[in-house]
Amino acid sequence: MRRYGLLLESDPRLPSVVSLVAGKPIAGSWWGHPSGGAIYREVRKLADRSDVVLLKLLNGKVTFVLDTLWPQVYAVGCCGEPWQVNGLNPQSLRLLELVRRHGLIRTDDPRSRVAAGPQVSFAALHLERRLLVIGTQVHTESGRHAKSLESWLHWARRKKLASRLSATRAKAELAELVGRLNAEFKGKARVPWAA
User: Does residue 71 lie in a domain region?
Assistant: First the structure.
């Protein structure tokens, strides 16, 4: 993570929490693996760090991003380019508007259900994979799972991030970094704007 500023939760080739804890990549879900408990604890530790943000950055998978790359991901997240918004379904667009209006919402909030309907989880995932919001897993009081969805502007204010990096430069820097990562580990990671 220190070397690249990025670490995947799970990947068959690239460095990931799963392969680091288990000692090798795991095919399929890691939950049932003998190292599943240890993997979960490490994932939670990373997710709770104040210098890390979780995004669906590489191949639409959970990617831990160190604060050294926050200016880049912030610039990309805020760019509003066609790859982010073209083809969004009405439910996702309404959910995005709700997140932008309030800054921070949860998918179990009745307003989210009104905006996106019963497929609110799908709409949230769609927004995360296009880097339009920052999604965080939440364990509710009832023991269920929900997502907290945060707008980039709200997140930047909360993190006191002031960045004036252009989206063009930010995308180029991130793509170059991912290219080096792929070359070193024979990976196939792709950033969302190149998908």
Answer: no
Kindly state whether residue 99 falls inside one of the protein's structural domains. yes
Domain extent, residue 108, equals: 89-158
Domain holding 112: CATH number? Answer: 1.10.10.10
Separation of CA 69 from chain center:
13
pLDDT by position in tens, the chain (length 195)? 888 999 999 998 999 988 888 888 777 777 777 777 787 889 889 999 999 999 999 999 999 999 999 999 999 999 999 999 999 999 999 999 999 999 999 999 999 999 999 999 999 999 999 999 999 988 777 778 899 999 999 999 999 998 889 999 999 999 999 999 999 999 999 999 997
Number of structural domains in the chain: 1
How far apart CA 12 and CA 186 sit, in angstroms, is: 10
Which residue in the block uniquely carries the two structure tokens 């999604």? Answer: 135
With CA atoms as reference, report the closest residue to 68 among 52, 90, 57, 56. 52
